[in-house]
Amino acid sequence: MSSTGPMTPAAAAKAAEAAASLPAPASSPSPSPSRSTLFQGGLRAFLMADVDPELSTIPLAAYCFMTGWIDAVSFSAIFVWCAFQTGNSVQLALALARLFQGSPGHRDTSFHLADQQALTSVLTFIFGAFLGRIGDRIGAKTRAWLFLGTFIQALFTMAAAIALWKSGQGSVASSRDVPAWSSASTFACLGLISASMGLQGIMGKRVNTQFTTTIVLTTVWCELMADPKLFVMHRVKTRDHKVIAIVALFVGGFCSRAILQSIGSPAALGIGTGLRTAIALSWFFVPGKKAPGGGGARKN
User: Fold this and answer.
1) Can you give the pLDDT of all 300 residues of the chain as single tens digits?
2) Which of 116, 124, 178, 233 could form a disulfide with 195 if both were Cys (CB 3.0 to 4.6 A apart)?
3) How far apart, in whole angstroms, are the C-alpha atoms of residue 80 and residue 120?
4) What whole-number distance in Å separates Cα of residue 283 and Cα of residue 140?
5) 173 near 144, Cβ under 8 Å?
6) Residues contacting 5, CB < 8 A, separation 6+
């Protein structure tokens, strides 16, 4: 019989390395990731998942409701629609044309208060809509952006409520010639609520549903009247969602006016802040969009 001699230190080191490189036995438990790692990974996937536009009816209808709510505040005070920029744009065109009315030396070259307010609303609305481009980087339909963007709208509304409250001015104009708002604080309020509507508009547009931008009903009215299934008795998504948008905006304007004429516009905007915060949270409860082939396409 042959016997092996003692192993050299180099040979022992090589043997130890070889043993360490062997796979663990099947019966031995494999190390599991910590719960916090799993939770963080799951939370990120949840936030970055796209919502299903077809199941976003409630928050989008709430967007339409807030359009009526916020517009009622600005129109009651200064006869400016902070969400409907068509009228403001035409008003600015008329203000420019007025510079050429009359003979030289007898022309009205003043910058009327109403025109200043219209310009403020247009510019800040554009700024708010531009902020919506952030969603294109994050993901326009992700829960993360829909929550964050709606929460930013709530912050704008809260800041507007504070600015209006600090101004000490009224909530309802007695006539078009005597607007209720004229101070710098009310201009800040107008700019903030207009920016919030611009942001809401582009977010609604990116979700791409029958609610369109959630702020302009002209297109919705036209598409509703042109819908070939307008008078069909059973449920029709293309028609029903447009009707929901119109009704929600109408109810929002009615409720806002009823509240502001009782407790004032700052309080109405404060309530609007709470409503927008609730809408932001509601995006977490919208189901995610199914992957193609995951459960079959949903029939319209």
Assistant:
1) 444 555 566 666 666 666 555 555 554 444 444 444 434 569 999 999 999 999 999 999 999 999 999 999 999 999 999 999 999 999 999 999 988 887 787 787 888 999 999 999 999 999 999 999 999 999 999 999 999 999 999 999 999 999 999 999 999 998 888 999 999 999 999 999 999 999 999 999 999 999 999 998 999 999 999 999 999 999 999 999 999 999 999 999 999 999 999 999 999 999 999 999 999 999 999 999 886 665 444 444
2) 124
3) 10
4) 13
5) no
6) none
